[in-house]
Amino acid sequence: MIKNIIALLLITYGVFGNSIFDILDTPTPEPAPIVLKIDEPSETLKAKVVPLAATITDNDDRVEVALFFLELSERVQKWDLNLQQLNDVVVTAAVKFFQGRLHGKYDGFDQGLTKLIIDVTGSEVHILSEEEKLKLHEAFEALAWALVQR
User: Fold this and answer.
1) Residue 20 reports pLDDT greater than 60
2) Rounded to two decimals, what is the model's pTM?
3) Spatial distance between the Cα atoms of 93 and 85, rounded to a whole number of angstroms
4) What CA–CA distance (Å, rounded) separates 82 from 92?
5) Element (H, E) at 82
6) In a domain, 12, yes or no
7) Do residues 62 and 53 make contact, with C-beta atoms less than 8 angstroms apart?
8) Could you list the residue range(s) of the whole structural domain that residue 48 is in?
9) 140 CB-near residues (< 8 Å, 6+ apart)
10) Is residue 96 part of a domain?
11) Which residue of 8, 62, 120, 121 pairs with 135 in a disulfide if CB–CB is 3.0 to 4.6 A?
């Protein structure tokens, strides 16, 4: 009798295989796609950031850089800092966030970013005004917008 039960179980397992145990598995939910809601910038800002964003060609890098600048755009308005400190924060944060993966990978991006910042603040080291911080916020957000437009 036991031999018959074991034989029946082995035949059933041979016919159905692991699919018998699949019934016990719970379905794994699919992750929801991340949607970034970034307001479309003015035409003036678009003219500045679209060519800068075009220097980054890899889609994964574009998304990461967009997230970086979107977060930076939210934070820059809250900081009391001068132009040199802003530069230090951007460089240090980028080194830590990207862990050196993008260093030297995209020619012209760092010069374009420097020009974008200097267009807002000028090149003299000074404490950033509220108006400059607002314009930097808009510029960084516009850059994030341009990077996800593909």
Assistant:
1) no
2) 0.76
3) 12
4) 15
5) none
6) no
7) yes
8) 43-147
9) 69, 70, 72, 73, 76
10) yes
11) 120
